[in-house]
Amino acid sequence: MKERNKHLLDLPKVQGIGVSHHSHRISLYVEHSAKVPSEIEGFKVQKMEVGVLRPYHGVSAGSSVGTYSEFLHDEIEGTLGMAFLDEVGNPVLLSSNHVFCGIDTVQHPTARMGQPIWENTPYGKHNIATLENWVPIDEEGGNIAEPASARPLSTTTINPDVIGLGIPEAIADPVPQLPVMKMGRGTVLTISKVIDVHASVKVDFEGAFSTTFDDQMLIADGPRFSRTNDSGASILAKVDNKLLAVGLLMGGSEQVTMANKMTNVARLLGFNLPTATIV
Predict the structure, then answer these.
(1) What pLDDT digit, counting tens, does each position of 138-167 carry?
(2) What single string gives the DSSP state of each residue in 67-133?
(3) How far is C-alpha 49 from the geometric centre of its chain's CA atoms?
(4) Region 37-65: what's the mean pLDDT?
(5) Residue 140 contacts by C-beta under 8 Å, 6 or more apart in sequence?
(6) pLDDT value at position 71?
(7) How far is CA 261 from the centre of its chain?
(8) Nearest-angstrom CA–CA distance, 39 and 37
């Protein structure tokens, strides 16, 4: 039987085999459009197209990520916002300063180039990237965004999909009442709408300091849209059948979620991403 199975698995486009002696039938699991015999050694053959079988691995936007915070002297967790290729084709991971850096400020620069970033899984923490670029938070105010980017390790497989939502085609500025969604570590997939696109807000960072952020987008529904550990998630909108990234989730309250505009994020980090206009 082992020799027969090996012979069948060596056939072009055959991905698997199952044998039922009770029904005297062989099931061949094949790639698309594979031709198979109707009978093998007196067994009727049943064909099922399954495509190419591969292991699931790699990290996707929406995954749980974290680092060690020298600022807080503790581990900090959040969400991977985006995974994409830069202008020269190198993979980049995007999240928030307080997720990838563990809170790095102008006044207290605690993050370091090459700082390890890990993915949180049911089987433990796995290093996936190293910190590469970030925008320090100014404790005195006047902030626009607090993004950070990381370079994946050579052993890390990157999936550009946002889990369950697809691959963003471009970035765009949000408009009031725009329906938006996000995939985050804290509340997983949620949907709401934008209520402000030019807000100036005061943000409390773990009780250590408060500072202001200008030109922020606010999203309705508070904790139903986001909670702890959703920071860093991409805020997405489906417009004219295109998936657009409009914001990078930063935090919120019991009433609203706040996010940096993705156009400001890209500009501050120096990424030249495709843009679109929402009308």
Answers:
(1) 999 999 999 999 999 987 888 889 998 999
(2) EEETTTTEEEEEE--EEEE-TTS-EEEEEEHHHHTSS-BSSS----TT-EEEEEETTEEEEEEEEEE
(3) 30
(4) 80
(5) 106, 107, 211
(6) 96
(7) 17
(8) 5
